[in-house]
Amino acid sequence: MSRVAIVTDSASDMPPDVAAAARIGIVPLVVTFGSETFKAGTELTTDDFWRRMTAPDAPFPTTAASSPGDFKAAYDKAFADGADSIVSIHVAGTLSGTLKAAQIARGMLPDREIHIVDSGSASMGEGLLAELAIESADLGHTAAEVARLLEDRARDIDLYVALDTLEYLKKGGRISGARAAIGTLLSVKPIITIRDGVVETADKPRTTGKARVRVIELLTQRPLERLAILYTPPADGEGFRREVLERLGGSIDPARVSIQPVGASVGPHIGPGCLGGVVLYQR
């Protein structure tokens, strides 16, 4: 087994059981509903988050970065469990203070080898890189080699998600009120992506059905290495995955097309009823 430990944060949307099976440590971001605060994924499951999020008159949830202390605790545990070095992969530094918290924690352990990687993305944009990291480490690569690989392959990752509304991105401060108002005025179902750590609009179909078709086109526009289907309740993620696999026509092993609901760290920013995915394109 590799002596390189892999750590990410809950904005990666990796299910805790999947991460544990892959030996990937997850540091939770913080989610607050009114006066109640939770650590995403540990004190608040994804199912519980969406029940709260969609409840009548529920307060709008806010998110906050993990603390440097949380990262230091995760790093200390990894070293105590036998790791010689750590590669820590995180949500884009332009979208969250989480990356900065990880860097501060690294500074608290000056005698340890810890590599911090900015995914430049979010959700499974981080998660797919974490999967690559484990595979690379298990092949015997050093932490420095794993980090360089991730920084290189991050350029092959794209995220496309069709939203029901831009309102949640506006509330979360990720886009301006003017941009959200334009989207509402035009009655579009915007498709977002992340470019250089910035949320951008990839397309603006007029209906949910057209948005669904367009997301599939965007995700499959180049040969794929792996794909993570993302959805937020009540959207039909399984049905969407089947449509994507039909479009791919056997060109990829279905085992390399995972599916998971967006969790409590990213969900407040995109809202319910979303469909999309994160793709790692072939070189």
Structure description:
The protein is an alpha/beta fold and 283 residues long. The protein has two domains: 4-155, Rossmann fold; 156-281, Hypothetical Protein Tm841, Chain: A,domain 3 (2-Layer Sandwich), CATH 3.30.1180.10. Helix content is 37%, strand content 25%. It is built from eleven helices and 13 strands. The protein has helices at 16-21, 46-53, 68-80, 98-107, 124-138, 143-153, 167-171, 177-185, 208-219, 237-248, 267-270, and strands spanning 4-9, 24-27, 30-33, 36-39, 62-64, 85-90, 113-118, 157-162, 191-195, 198-203, 224-231, 257-261, 275-281. The chain has a six-stranded mixed β-sheet, sandwiched between helices. α3 packs across α4 and α5 packs antiparallel against α6 (143-153). The longest helix has 15 residues, at 124-138. It is globular and about 55 Å long. The two termini are 27 Å apart. The model has no long low-confidence stretch (mean pLDDT 92).
Radius of gyration: 18 Å
Write down the domain tally: 2
Annotation field: number of helices: 11
Task: Label the overall shape.
Answer: globular
What's the assembly state of these chains? single chain
Distance between the amino and carboxyl termini: 27 Å
The CATH architecture classification of the largest domain is 3-Layer(aba) Sandwich
The low-pLDDT segments are none
Major sheet, described briefly?
6 strands, mixed
* Largest sheet, spatial ordering of strands: 10-9-8-13-11-12
CATH class of the largest domain: Alpha Beta
SSE pattern, N- to C-terminal: EHEEEHEHEHEHHEHHEEHEHEHE
What's the short story on this structure?
This protein has 283 residues and is α/β, with parallel strands linked by helices. Helix content is 37%, strand content 25%.
